[in-house]
Amino acid sequence: MSRPGEQIVTVDDLHVEFETGGRSVEAVSGVSLEIREGETLAVVGESGSGKSVTALAMLGLLGNGRVSAGTITWDGRDITNASNAEMRGIRGNEMSVVFQDPMTALDPLFTIGSQLREALRVHRRIPRKQARARVVELLSQVGIPDPESKVDAYPHQLSGGQRQRVMIAGALACTPRLLIADEPTTALDVTVEAQVLRLMRDLQTETGVALMLITHDMGVVAEMADRVAVFYAGEVVETGTAEQILTDPRHPYTQALLQAIPRPDTPRDKPMPAIPGVVPTLDEMPSGCRFSTRCPLADGDRCELPQTLHDVGGRQARCWRAETPAETRRIAEVAP
Ligand SMILES: Nc1ncnc2c1ncn2[C@@H]1O[C@H](COP(=O)(O)OP(=O)(O)O)[C@@H](O)[C@H]1O
Ligand SMILES: [Mg+2]
Predict the structure, then answer these.
(1) Residue with CA closest to ligand 1 atom 16
(2) How far apart are CA 288 and CA 309, in angstroms?
């Protein structure tokens, strides 16, 4: 076991490719990140920025994709090209995952109890009776009312929020050291979202599990994160503490994401402010700064060159303008 605060997983210069229609496309282009014992790393960025693919690579679940370069180190061990058997020993045991849609992850034909028992038995070989007691304990730990009877309920008999709680219970069944939660509350309404986020925070305090929380919502980041990695178009464009990212963002994309958080006083009938333009597709990626096609500050030759992620203001940002926060902040001033 590592000491608290020690790195449990390190992703170094990860590249992931998919073969589509006879061509290969790169979905993740040199992502580096690390997660330490007990902390919450929020991974944030718009849809299509490579957040899920990075997580799937860490879990050894890339399917038709492959790691074409870089390394993933789990607890000091290189698992970049680990066998399925080796990954099955880690996944669901030391490193577990919760996805966005609990209805597709739960089997409608089996009771909640039998699915959670299965999760327990695969790794721990617990006798049936003891497993049932542990399942009831898990359900009550994640705040499912009347857990004794919910053990025998089917997924459709639970609300969306309760199903997500069951998924979290399943992910925590084997007391993992890292929980990867990929947009865990995106399908839930705001009240239930707040409850599920609070649950994850409480469980983290109780169990010391580290959390990799994937979200497209800076509001969730503000609520949950210790550290943040901002993804854009397959790259990390800024990374630092939650405070640095939320109060002094240096990359124009981070700044734009923060601008897109709906304010409490925004009228409900007004559409949510969005960042103009779209994430470039994998086969038309700009050769220079990948955000340059949408960046309100892009001008001239330096933005047409690839940008490096470099130390600036105590964190790292991938923009040559990041040294001059005042310039970057111009976005805040011109935004509505
Ligand atoms: N199985 C796949 N085959 C081909 N392309 C994929 C596959 N999975 C993801 N991609 C592409 O990789 C990019 C990153 O996707 P993803 O990691 O899912 O984004 P997000 O940040 O929304 O989680 C997207 O352009 C997506 O279309
Ligand atoms: Mg995703």
Answers:
(1) 50
(2) 13
CA-nearest residue for atom 17, ligand 1, is 50
Q: Where are the chain's structural domains?
A: 7-37+46-94+218-334
Q: Which ligand is located closest to the Cα atom of residue 65?
A: 1
Tens of pLDDT along 107-128? 899 999 999 988 787 667 778 8
Position 132 pLDDT exceeds 60: yes
Q: Which amino acid, residue 163?
A: R
Protein residue whose Cα sits closest to atom 25 of ligand 1: 48
| Residue-wise pLDDT tens digits, 9-64 | 999 999 999 998 889 999 999 999 999 999 999 999 999 999 999 999 999 999 99
3-state secondary structure of 219: helix
Mutate to test the pocket of ligand 1, among 20, 24, 53 (most ligand atoms within 8 A of CB): 53
Q: What angle do CA 174, 81, 32 make, to 5 degrees?
A: 85
pLDDT at 120: 80
CATH topology for the 7-37+46-94+218-334 domain: Rossmann fold (3.40.50)
Q: Ligand 1, residue 45: give the atom nearest the CA.
A: 21
3-class DSSP state of 216: coil
